[in-house]
Each structure stands twice: as structure tokens, then as C-alpha cells.
Amino acid sequence: MLSTPVETKLANDVPDLSFSSLHNLDPSLKEKLSAEHYFKEEPYGWVVVFAVFMISVIVDGLTYSFGELYPVFREKFGGHPVLTSMVLSILVGVTYGCGPVASWLCEKLGLRVVAVAGSIMAALGCLLSLAATEIWHIAICYGALTGLGFGFMYLSAIVSVSSWFEEHRALATSIAVCGSGVGTFIFAPITTFLLEYYGFYGCLFFMAAIVLNGAVFGMLLRPPPSRHHHQKTIKEKLLQSEMEAAHKRLRRWIRDEIDWELLTNGTFLLYCTSSFLGGVSCYVPYMYLSDRAVHETGMVRQHASFLISIVGIASIVGRLSAGILSNQKIADNLILYSLSCLVAGLATAFSVHAASYVAYAFYAAIFGFTGGVIIALQSVVLADIVGVDRISSAFGALLFVQGISVFVGPPLAGYLVLNAEDNGIQVEKYHLCFIVMGGVMCWSGLQILLIPLLRRMKVLSKYRLRRSSQA
Known about the structure:
The chain has 471 residues and is mainly α. It has 19 helices and no strands. The model is unreliable at 1-38 and 228-240 (pLDDT under 50).
């Protein structure tokens, strides 16, 4: 899907309940096996990075080209705008939500098996959509089944990168998830081309074939040789110790993930609310921008599809720029994050005045760049708010909030479009949607600006209490 903080979360915070874990063991046994368990980074790890990059291209590319399929779904199935938008909600929501299941299967079956199985499931979802006669059939097949497959592919892929690297783990993961922007760049025009020349059924068939190639890349996700070579020996030696420690690790992981003190942290709750608002509004351009350009300007659909490509490439530039700005301490992370939300929101709202391809492309570039900055800074800002030692539990709560927003945003956007159609507005039926969602993005950015104010109020409150106690 997106190259979001989800990738970082999956790469670093998946609970380790496997036999190969050396946590919570007797110190002497741990020391005895440490040399045997140690592995060095090997060149094949970069083959794994390439495989994960390509899986990111496939998963996020198909997800964010949904806007090209949206008008076809509505036309073919006579779908209600809200119901049609729910397909994207289900697709993304299931991809996010299946993480615990995918993680458990990776522990039991291995990363390669889960990735290949996910590819087959996602392809099967596309093929079963060929037999659909109602929009809810698409929601089940293309939304739920394909989303489940994408979730399996993505989690196993990202975790695979982390298992091959230690010193260069951050670099390898960053390169791998850049496939998200590349996929967004290339798949929108590809989808439009397939629809134009092969029709709806031909497009879904080709999509299934493309997704099935994920199985080829999934087969490249083999475990590091050093770990694989000693796996059987380690299992035999650690069986008793691991069985005794497994339940303790699981209980501790659950306890750490559910940090109830975060619910009393006002700045964290503000950030979650801001993230929820951002999640509600961020899918509108991906769903409607190209179709809106066709309806309002008479633009050729193939040209309109390149607008999503511009969003994708600008997103990559935004992520890289945010990393440089953050590392060099050129600007405060909170301010940069807030300004990006505000600029994205204002650009979305004022994009209703766009009347030419250049204007639409300019908006797409602004939205993609600011979106990339927001994605890159999300986990950084979270660490600034709650501290590095609590980021794991905070991230879990944040992902839960983002998962809920996925099921709110697209249906709400569909309702706004339907409201315009019911009022006889056809050519400019997307204007209300873009204005409202742009306002929601601005609201998200303004809430972030309240965080420094809250911090200042806390400092003043502590100062006054100290002065009163000294008096």
C-alpha cells in the first residue's frame, strides 16, 4: 500500500515468538548460542530488497489506481457512490487489519509461503470479480479477498527485509518501500490503457496476472543462510526454554502495546485526532481526480490518468525532502507536518478552480509532495510527542485510528458526490467533495498547531505549582 509508517512498524515491531528468538533465555544458554545464531549481511539481501520493492509496486500501484476503476464500477453495476467507494475502504482496511493474522502465519509457515499465498489470494480476488453482477460482489472479491492477499504479501515482504539486514536495515527498508511511489506512478495509466483496449473483463484478467507475479517475487524471500543453516539445531536446543518463555513474551507484548496512560496524554490524543482527519480526507484525489478532470475539462482519460502518476512521483520527492529537512534540523517537525497538511488541504479545496491540464498537474504535484512529507514525518512526530520508549504502543493505537478513518473517508466522499448528483449537478459534481475534504485536511493541520500550545500550558502550570509550593 502506501509507503506509510506501517512499513516501519512491521519491520521493527512484529512480536518475536519464534523458536529462533534468544530473548528471555538463561544467560549461559544465550551466550552459548549467540555465535551460532549470529549472521552477517550478505549480497543476496539486496535481491530480497528488489523483490520487496516489486511487491510494493504491485500492491500500492493497484490500490491507488482504484480511481480509474471507480467510474467503470459505477457504470457497469449501477453502483451507489457510497457503496462503490466502500470497495476502496474494504480493500485498504483489510490490508491494514489482517496484520496480526499475517504475522502469526509468518511465524508458523514462513515468510515465503505467506507471500506466495497472498499473491494467489489477491489474484483470485481479481478473477472472481469477473463473475460479479452486483457491486457488493466486487466489495467481497476485489475488496476483501484481494485486500487480504495484499496484506499477506506486504507484511511478509517488509519483515523479510528486516531479517536480512542489521547495520543497513533502515536503508534497505527505505529503498524497498519506495516501490509504493513507483507503483502509483505507473499503474494509473496502465489501468486506463487496459480498460480502453481490453475492456473491464480484460483489465481485471491482466490485473490478476500482474498480481500473480507477486508469487515469483515472493519466492525470492528466502531466510538468511546463516539462520537457515542453524535453524534445526537451535530449535532442538531451545524447545523447552522457548515453550516456557513464549507465553510470558506474548503477555508482555500485549501489556506493552496497550499503554493506557496514553489515553490521558492530551498531545497524543490531539495527534490521533489529526491523523484520523487526515486519513478521512487523503483518498479523495486517488478516487476522483482523474474522473473529475475528464468530466470538467473533456480531457482524454489516458492523459487524466497521468495525474495520479504525478502524485506518485511527487510523493517520492516529498519523502526524500522531508528526511533531509528533518535530519538537518532545518525546520521543526511539528510545524513542517502541520504546514504540509494545511497546504495539501488548501490546494485540494482550491483545485475546483482548475480548468486546464497544467492546473490539474500542478495540484497533483502539490498534493503528492505534501502527502510524501506527511508520510515521512508521521512516525518522527509521534516519537517527538510520546518519546522513543513508548512509540511502539503509541503506534499501535495510531494505526487503529487510521484503520477506522479508512472506513469513514471514501463513503463520506461518495455521499457528497451523490448529494451533488441528486441536486442535478453533473459536470461539477466533485466540487463539494474536494472543498469539504480540503477543509478537513486543513483542520487536521491546524490541530497539530495546538500541540506546542498545550506543551507551553503544561510548562506554565508546573511553574505555577512550583512557585505556589515555595511560597
